[in-house]
Each structure stands twice: as C-alpha cells, then as structure tokens.
Amino acid sequence: MKSYKIFTINPGSTSTKIALFQDDKELFSKNVSHDANKLAEYKTISDQFEYRKETIDTLLEENNISLNDVDAFVGRGGGLLSMDGGTYEIDDLVLDHASRGANGVQHPAILGPQLAYEYAKEINVPSFVVNPPDVDELQDLARMTGIKGVYRTIHLHALNLKETAIRHAESMSRKYEECNFIVCHIGGGISISAHRQGKMIDGFDIVGGEGPMAPTRCGEIGVAELLKYCEGKDLKEVRQLCTKSGGFVSHLGISDALEVSNRAKNGDAYAEMLWNTMIYQIEKCIGSMATVLHGNVDGILLGGGMVYNEDLVSQIKDTCQWIAPVSAYPGEFEMEAMAAGAIRVLSGKETVKKYTGQRKFKGFAFVK
Question: Gene3D superfamilies attached here (predicted)?
C-alpha cells in the first residue's frame, strides 16, 4: 500500500497551525505565532499572506523540515460559499473566493487555501480543502423559517464533526455513510449536529446565535427579548454576543471554561448555574437532533476541548445515554482531518470534488 506525506495549514487569529503527516502519523507540528502588531498593519486578512508564509518558511528551515517530497497540501477552507461535505481541489475559483471572502466572513481561515496552493505550486502537487466551515447538507425541512424569504443556514465545526463521525464509524467496523450519529464539538463554540448516512442534515447555526450558550457565545434567545435588549445599543456590539462577548464572557467576563467549572466546584453559585445551564442546553439540543433522526441513533459523539472535563461528560451521559451510547473524543482532529481527507482522495477511497462557486441552496422553487 502506497504511503502519503501531507502538509496541513490552519490559520488562526494570531497564529497558524501547521503539521506534517506520513499517512496518519504526525511527523511534525507547530502553532506558529504571529506578531499581533504586525498583523494589524495589514488592511485585509489576505494582505497577510506573504508575512505568514515567510514566518512558516523560517520555522521549517529552523527545524530542517523539507516539503519537497510532500504528496499534497491542505489548507483550512475559509471564505467559500456553501457546499456539500468532502475534499475539494484548490483551483482558481477557490482561490478567488477565499482571497476575498466570498461568503462575507473575514476570518484568517481564508488564508488556508491560498497558502496550501502556493506551497503545492512550488513542487507541482495537488492542494485541497476538506469539509470547509460552510458545509451545507441540510435536509429541506431544516431550511424553512416563519419569515418569508428568510431561510436557515448553519455554520458549524464541520471539519472536526465529520472526522469524529468517520473515526467512530471505523471503530464500529462500519462506514460513516452507513451510520446515524449526533455529533457535538464542545469548545469555545459549541456545535451540535445530526448526521444521517454520511450527510450532516441538521444542526445549529452557532455564528447566527442558535444552539446552546457557550463560553463566548450567547446561544439561542427569544426574539422579543433580544429586540428589547437591543434598544439603544450599537448593532455591532449586539452582533458580537453571537461569537465573542456572549455566554460566560457576558456574565463573568471570562471565557475560560475550566475556571468557570472550578468556581462552580468551589461553591460559586453564579458560576455553578452558568456551567450547569450550558450543559442543560447542550443536552436539550442533543435531544432535538435525536428527533431529527427519528430516534435511529447509532451513537452520540462528543469532541472539543471541554470534553476533557469529566463532569461535563458525566452529566451528558446521565441525561442522554438512553438515546444512544455516548462516546467522548476530547480535543479536536482538525489537522488530522485535513490530512485524512487528502489521503482518502489520493488513495482512491474518495472522489475529489470540484467547487462550483454557487450557493448550494437558493430558495424553494414554489416560493414566489
């Protein structure tokens, strides 16, 4: 069986994660830090490209890491329009949409495809994005809302959610496409999703404010109450409650889930209520996804940094294991997931997909 060497790139706000894999074995990894003041000098995120690449190049040189024998490069797929899950080859259209953030989201992940393509071009090998953030596999019933012309979309940790499901299916000696799972990523943001036979058919839009409270996110709130809260406030400030200043930050001014958990253990009534409310809301969302799957659930899978917390896992098991067995996968598989997607394509286990640049859902034909 042929062996493959894959280099993965995952840009973040002030750092870029890189990793080199030989098949599923990690040969080298590093979270490359960037000078925040330097990044602030650039007008757009895409303008940071040369600076970030030079920083990565320097680190590779310092560690005597050569990329000349790499079989493929994979970048985090930011900035793209909605699409099915899978592995996509980076072409001119992907580069164009990533570089300008065609989905309207200016996140450092838009540098992922650009950096991966540039490295791949230097040695003439393919470059890919795997299960980008805008994966959209919603079933039709999950799209309609009570406002004409407004449809649901979801933004989730698709990369980690799908990789967790793929790995768990393999542990059962089954294919992801044969299983039904409720998959959760529980970290700074909390994604909860229903997976039916290889498709993520429903979930909660964590960027839009759906789902449970999280360390930095407000979660779902009644529209009337939110409108009342918005009176006299700056819209930008209110929008930040969805992703930056809600949840634990809004209540206690901290985003560290471990600190909130420890305060709760030590008798802080406010922290205890917040901690248990977050878990309660996670459990409610898991229950709703069980309904989406008509109760036919092969497993409830928990991933993300907070899953290292035994109290959180214990509470969810106590509440939800009557639905299906609960399995914990602490941490995340983002770098491994990107490498695995490329290897599935290179080995012929999966067909590479072509990015169309067209939003997957454009409304229902019967709605005029």
Answer: 3.30.420.40
d(CA 269, CA 248): 14
Give Cβ neighbours of residue 99 (< 8 Å, ≥ 6 apart): 46, 79, 110, 114
Report pLDDT for 243.
Answer: 80
For residue 158, give every residue at least 6 positions away whose Cβ sits within 8 Å of its Cβ, in sequence order, or none: 85, 131, 132, 133, 134, 135, 200
Q: What sign has the CA pseudo-torsion 276, 281, 282, 283? A: positive
Give the domain 5-134+335-346 fold.
Answer: Nucleotidyltransferase; domain 5 (3.30.420)
Q: Could you tell me which of 3, 122, 21 has the C-alpha nearest to residue 65?
A: 21
pLDDT band at 194 (very low <50, low <70, confident <90, very high): very high
CATH of 158-331, one of 3.30.420.40, 3.90.226.10, 3.20.10.10, 3.30.565.10: 3.30.420.40
**Predicted pLDDT at 277:** 98
β partners of residue 7: 20, 73
The Cα–Cα gap between 71 and 52 comes to: 22
**Two structure tokens written together for 118:** 């540039």
* Rg for the chain, CA atoms, rounded: 21
Six-digit token string for 202: 């429903």
Average pLDDT (140-160) is 92
Q: Report how far residue 100's alpha carbon sits from residue 95's, in angstroms, rounded to the nearest whole number.
A: 9
| CA-based nearest residue to 74, from 46, 123, 111, 113 | 113
The half-sphere exposure of 338 on its side-chain side, counting CA atoms within 13 A, is 31
Q: Pick left, alpha or beta for residue 320 (phi over 0 → left; psi -120 to 50 → alpha; otherwise beta).
A: alpha
Q: What is the pLDDT of residues 84-104, one digit of tens each?
A: 999 999 999 999 999 998 888
Residue 353 DSSP symbol = B
Measured distance CA(355)–CA(357) in Å, rounded: 6
Q: Model-level pTM?
A: 0.91
Q: Are 175 and 298 in contact (CB under 8 A)?
A: no
Task: Name the strands in the sheet holding 180-186, side by side, starting at the edge strand that comes first in the sequence.
Answer: 199-203, 190-196, 180-186, 299-304, 326-330
- 35: tokens are 């000078």
The domain limits of the chain are 5-134+335-346, 158-331
DSSP state of 67: -
